[in-house]
Input
Amino acid sequence: MPEFGALSLVPPLLAIVLAIWTRRPILSLFVGIWSGGVIATGSIGIGKTFNWIAESMADVFHAQILIFTLLLGSGVALIWRLGGAAAVRNWATTRLETQRNAGVATWVLGILLFFDDYANTAIVGSTMREISDQMRISREKLSYIVDSTAAPVATIALSSWVAFQLSMIGEGYTALVESEDYDIAAADTPGIFETFVGSIPFNTYSLLAIVMVGVIVLSQRDFGEMLDAEHRAWQTGKVTRDDAQPLQEVEKDLGAPIEDRPMLRTFFVPIVVLIAVTLAGAFWTGYESWVGEQADAGATTSIGTAMSDDGVVQVLVDVVGAGDFAAALVWGSFAMVATLITIGLAYDLFDLGDGIETVLQGFNLMLTAVSILVLAWSISAVAEELGTGSYVAGAAEGVVSPAILPIVVLLVSAFVAFTMGSSWATMGIVTPIAIRVAYELTGTFDLMPVMVGAVFSGAIFGDHTSPISDTSVLSSTFTGADLIDHIRTQLYYAGTVLFVVIVCYALYGFLSVPPIVFLPLGVVLLVGLVTVLSEFDARRKGVSPRASSIEADFGGRGAETEPGSLSEEVD
Output
């Protein structure tokens, strides 16, 4: 039992409750961290509080993400200043034409950019924000689509997550082998990659969260606070509520763009550069690391030979998993900024002084987001030092029925991620415990893929519903949404998916229904729930379940037409 027991829950829960109640995430996070300092020291705790904050900023990975966020802010500012945002808005609205098409485009783009969740939120959010605004899609809806495709896609695809996930499974198996309580040889444990692949169908929340986004954007049905947000945006054009505090306000902070020559290249070229440099950097660092590991192990350093011996998939997993995605994101965002300044100078749209001034304005654009990120990492450090995750995860060890174990692991992981604001920290804490508990109950490794999938599912759900989650902060930042509004509106949809996941796990645990059956059933149940809940909530509020189905004023355009095209020509 952790030293602080139930007291370890106070800092994260206090921060979360205050953030939702006051809608002031920076103040709430700081109060939560300070309360942790008081608990840890037994005194005023202010020194401990600022130590945690300083350590969060000093962490190399965190520092790289902060640099990436600031540079991307500069990239966004330069695109806006050069007229790229206006150009892509004009171009896209003549082709996408409807809210549904814009939503589907955002959803598909989020699925395609599977290689890293941070890059996903940055690229998709920044790309689609202007387009969704033109289509009167609320920022809450956009941030939901972005957030609910980023981490779920990354956790089941060949991404920056793979190496960490594999290492957590490996740690669980190693703990079993090294334990004196069990007579297990290393050769007796299943393959780590085999377990990961087997866990994908049981990572049911991630799979169904992606499907849920598709159901919402295709049906155009909403419920909960998202229904209110969509009606507000559709009828008034206000993509955020009046008192919202968006983490990024490009129009307000940067003023009018240069509209002499709105060119598509000022939008798409830097985005392509960002993606290309990031992918190249991640692969290069991964390859360099892989070569070093192979040389240390006395194995071949030829990637072709290794693919022949170990298989293409395994080598790709090893290389991609070893990549330094944080550094690659910094390089990619810097290349993006350099490209935009070059375009601005080449086309005589501004001089170097104006370009540098815009870069600094972009930094300023991200200060709120950066502050929340640092404090979110700090509250996670508080929870880790006080033993919050270990305290909560211990609840799973009292379970006696293998049938209900997946549901318990799912809920425990969800609560740990919710209170710690980190899916990775949750996976690190809960995965070894879940593997041990499953082996104790069954004496076999049959349940291991189920346990791993349940941990990953719960971790992503907790991440989606926590205002102290870094991915929630970044999703709100790059879509220009209010963080708390994003969490409050997304909670209804994430909760619906979680309910369906519990039903799927119950079917598997009690009736032995396999994933090939319960996953399609889960999709059908999702569609049914969205239909029923949207109709019920709409009737209760006296509105349509589809906001865009009602007449709205678009400055002279007909009611049958969604926000349409602008007549300006673009290069």
Q: What stands out?
A: The radius of gyration is 24 Å. Confidence is low (pLDDT under 50) at residues 556-571. Residues 265-296 form the longest helix (32 residues). The chain is about 75% helix and 0% strand.
